[in-house]
Write a structure and sequence with these properties.
Helix content is 58%, strand content 0%. It is mainly alpha-helical. The longest helix is centred in the last third of the chain and has 23 residues. The chain is rod-shaped. 20% of the residues are buried.
Length: 92
């Protein structure tokens, strides 16, 4: 491979040119996280209502997979409902 800036020959796996320091096409390539599927988001909301600890786990999973909007909502809803259920059961 040759540098696009200075034209020097560089290794095919190089991230920058050792001669001029400009980034190569390999510099832009990085592994991106795939977002959580809609399946995980749907089950997260279902678990938030039916089994709050499972909703918390799926909410954290969604946040780890770059679905912060749903992850925060699922986790918060699960915590709220878990506390509500505990208060209702404790008052009986």
């Amino acid at each position: 491979m040759f540098c696009k800036e200075c034209g020097k020959e560089i290794k095919d796996v190089a991230v920058i040119c050792v001669s001029c320091g400009s980034p190569t096409d390999n510099f832009a390539k990085k592994e991106e996280k795939k977002p959580a599927s809609n399946f995980a988001v749907g089950w997260g909301y279902a678990c938030a209502f039916l089994l709050p600890p499972g909703g918390i786990i799926l909410g954290i999973y969604c946040m780890a997979k770059n679905r912060f909007d749903h992850g925060i909502m699922i986790t918060g809803l699960s915590l709220f409902l878990w506390a509500t259920f505990a208060a209702m059961l404790g008052g009986m």
